[in-house]
Amino acid sequence: MAEAHQAVAFQFTVTPEGIDLRLSHEALKQVYLSGLRSWKKKFARVKNSFITGVYPASPSSWLFVVIAIMGTLYARVDPSMGMIEKIKEHLPASSYLSHQGQSIVSALLFSTGLWFALIMTMRFILKQLLSYHGWMYEQHGKMSATTKLWLALVKIFSGRNPMLYSYQAVLPRLPVPGVKETVQRYLDSVRPLMNDEEYKRMTGLAKDFEVNLAPRLQWYLKLKSWWAANYVSDWWEEYIYLRGRGPIMVNSNYYAMDFLYVTPTPVQAARAANTVHAILLYRRKVTREELKPLMIQDCLPMCSAQYEHMFNTTRIPGVDTDTIQHYADSKHIVVYHKGRFFRVWVYQGGRLLNPKELELQFQNILNDPSPPQPGEEKLAALTAGERTAWAKARKTYFRSGKNLQALDLVERAAFFVTLQDDEEGLRTEDPVNSLDAYGKSLLHGKCYDRWFDKSFTFIVFKNGKIGLNAEHSWADAPIVGHMWEFVLATDCFQLGYNEEGNCKGQVDSNLPVPQRLQWDISEECQEVIQSSLAVAQALADDVDFHTFPFKEFGKGLIKKCRTSPDAFIQIALQLAHYRDKGKFCLTYEASMTRLFREGRTETVRSCTVESSQFVKAMMNPSQTNEERLKLFRLAAEKHQMLYRHAMTGGGIDRHLFCLYVVSKYLGVDSPFLKEVLSEPWRLSTSQTPIQQVELFDLVNHPEYVSCGGGFGPVADDGYGVSYIIVGENLINFHISSKFSSHETDSHRFGKHIQGALRDILALFKLH
């Protein structure tokens, strides 16, 4: 076997004259290059840590301070006010230095101390500046003198050429809102969902909580906010994601789609190679911290902490709670095809494999006729079923021998790749069903052809279409979306394909071939796999999915209405839901809190008194369009205000969640918190933002539009809605619900959304 031969670094024979060693120069060369790459990465990490550690100053600024201090000494001016002389008196090695040497060393020590003091001062000032959020509440297009001055100061103290994690130390901590404000905002949010008697009862519970229990719980949260980097994120990760014992497939994981209208090549191995190479290029940028931190208005940094676990990361199942396992580096990926698992090395001679070499590797896998080993084909169903069952199976059947080694390779892989043996994507002859099937395939597939525990599974279909399924606990969708934009743009506009649709480049003849993972799956383990598969299959079969492009108008026309596109769509969803079910419901819209250190998400409760009044006006034929338009503007303004509160740490749901966690730690019950945390989100929504507009030229290449991504329904009788605003004239929607619910129908709701968008636009009489 070729890989076995290449794995031997040397051979030896015993002769009468002694031992004869015959070294393999190629193998030793690979050992040397691998070690060299490892040391280079260690050095780069140390260098980046130092550069980030002194930001917003630069290492070269130290030299400037030293030269300035030395210059003043030679001019017989003492800027230290006697401190250099004090340092000179206490130098431990003063007896070994000349008088001039002592002066130079003392000046160097003083200069370095002064430099660090200046850095800490700049950081403190910048952190205080970034804690100001008044700019967000100003009228769009108008900027006060205070905000202009603030922006100028931010730019002065922000430094130049930041790396990915440069701003982490200067981001402010997420503030703990006041209990009174949170309780009042909660009561406002549930008013349209309750009758007078229900609301009166809830008000009584809330006020009792606010006066009696809340001050005690709030004290602990305040203490945590002073001590921890973020008072929410670790509890949110643990209790919302890692402690859930149900399947993460559909319930937690989400997906991203390929271009809607374009497939750059129909050659499966070539598309897989280009996009995998692009993903690895992105990983290199993350590892080297070469990505620029995401900025608002080109000067306000957002937290980059979630990028750390994008690659080489796996969710490990536990009986009571899961954990996230991250490895510093990984030199391989694991590929699944027709029930077999393969390890593919992504480095050769200390360099990344080029796309042509990766294409050869993937083609070797596609051409491999070997059948799956017993139990291998549906093994990944363990990651799709109940978490406790998977944890017990992992401890029982994967703790030694082949299974331990193979599982370790999967979990240590940079990411997981699935080469599908079927075709998906938009078909012009059947656009509705083809897009629906495409979305369902990415959401759950066959329930055994994705490793749902990996940070993400990259999927390549037989016709060259691609997609991605991401695990949710380690990061939120915008982080994965940023990588996905880079991958799509790099694949099409930089790497490209030749006339036959294959990758460009040359192939190293010494490439190791893909290696089959070896499993020893017992019959008992196979029964557990089948049990997990049955649970997952029942969940997948129940998903009613619909995705569609809305092409009648988009952001361009909505902006002419002088309203926020997101508020416009959210209010349309409220109208659509009322027409669909005849009632209002608790609505979740994901916002972000990444203006704060280790910030993740906050909830915007989109169903408000104002939006419900607008919906009722739209349903009332006696109301005039002028009255409806006035109510719409009030609803849009309220939605924007709620979004600002969420982004600036004034949201209510994470605060109430953390108060509930503290109450559980203290062993006290709160009827108010228990009721709040048990309320179902029957309409869960999220906008997929386009973060790198410069990568796509939608004016000259309008066909290169992203289809966005989606997620499963949060409530058994509710809807999950994801949407992406693409360019000026397109909005893509992804709707999920469950067939088992008699109240929901994803296609019906999709029609109501389209009708609501048209009806709201008609109020503005733009035509």
UniProtKB/TrEMBL annotation:
Keywords: Acyltransferase, Fatty acid metabolism, Lipid metabolism, Membrane, Mitochondrion, Transferase, Transmembrane, Transmembrane helix, Transport
Domain Choline/carnitine acyltransferase: 174-754
Chief location of this protein within or outside the cell: mitochondrion
GO MF, one annotated term: carnitine O-palmitoyltransferase activity
A Pfam cross-reference name: Carn_acyltransf
E.C. code: 2.3.1.21
EC class: transferase
Pathway membership: Lipid metabolism; fatty acid beta-oxidation
GO biological process: carnitine metabolic process; fatty acid beta-oxidation; fatty acid metabolic process
Gene3D superfamilies per UniProt: 6.10.250.1760, Chloramphenicol acetyltransferase-like domain, Choline/Carnitine o-acyltransferase, domain 2
Gene Ontology cellular-component terms listed: endoplasmic reticulum membrane; mitochondrial outer membrane
Substrates-to-products reaction catalysed: (R)-carnitine + hexadecanoyl-CoA = O-hexadecanoyl-(R)-carnitine + CoA
InterPro entries the record matches: Carn_acyl_trans (IPR000542), CAT-like_dom_sf (IPR023213), Cho/carn_acyl_trans (IPR039551), Cho/carn_acyl_trans_2 (IPR042231), CPT_N (IPR032476)
Membrane topology: Multi-pass membrane protein
Keyword match Membrane: yes
SUPFAM superfamilies recorded: CoA-dependent acyltransferases
TM region positions: 50-75, 104-126
Similarity comment text for this entry: Belongs to the carnitine/choline acetyltransferase family.
Protein name: carnitine O-palmitoyltransferase
Organism: Xenopus tropicalis (Western clawed frog)
Gene name of the encoded protein: cpt1al
